[in-house]
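Q: Got a minute? One more chain.
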Amino acid sequence: MSTSTRMHRRRFLGTGLSAAAIAPTVIPSSALGLDGAVPPSERIVVGGIGIGNRGTYDLGCFLEQKDVQFAAVCDVKEGRRQAVKKMADDRQKNTQCTMHRDFRELLDRDDIDAVLIATGPNWHALAAVTAAKAGKDVYCEKPCSKNIAQSLLLRDTFRRTGRVFQAGTQRRNLPHFAFACELARTGRLGKIKRVYAHPAGMSAATSGWLPAEPEPAREVVDWDMYLGPAAWRPFNKRFLDGFNFEKGGGLVGGGVLEWGSHCVDLCQWAVNDCPPPSSYDPPKDGQIVARYDDGAELIFREKGWIPLGSCPVRFEGETGWVEAGDSGKIVLSSPELMAGRVVAE
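A: Always. Here it is, folded:
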């Protein structure tokens, strides 16, 4: 069918429902948008790529939205494909979720509007770029990319295609982090001298080259697809544990990318999203020091953990400092800084 004669899917479904309404048949109320249901013509059809531990959590959030239909899952592990299909079918009360081993098959489907990408970070940017070129909007887990070149490709592709990209980083929406950054941005700490980012470790939990184990059949685990653009290495089931894969030396980037993407983003917000640091010192004694053009330092530290839960940050100015973390607590150099708080609890 030519592009000029192809009817838009939602318009077609809407027309079909109008015709069906007068046909001598029984139509489920959900198909007509009754009883609070969203009619098919208004639903966003979503596919999932790489649905492991984090992806399953994300999928649960998607399935809570009445206007979302989860139509397809892609994962290199057979067991995960089956588990996600069951989860989607049970929640949606149908058996329509299809399973795929290669995400390109999923992206070839014209009925899919958007995709959830929760693979290992080595695939994030490239899968998102491929999705945008296929006309899909994207929700992608962090980190968005592994390097600057991938980030620029990601930015340029989504600008060119006009697709929507949303990254899975939400800490700017949390009131305690917002307040800490507000103190820094509005000058209440004085001129900012140092901002500290404390990711959940910077070292690898596993070596990048574990002992070889018998590789499963491709249908069970597609090892080559799992590695994707990462350097090849022999199969080892420990890499199938998402945590070990994220921390594996050379595979992803360890805690620097996984957790650093959260706390460094908060540090950037604290300095008003100014241009990133222009100089860096090599890692030494568990920390990296980077410098902004105005002389302020960004200290990426593994040791000396701030006891405020995961992803803690500290902002130091000439007249005061503030610390915040995922525990929800805020520690201030002076209780007077709490006065006049603008950000809501």
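A: Residues 1-29 have pLDDT under 50 and may be disordered.
Q: Perfect, thanks.
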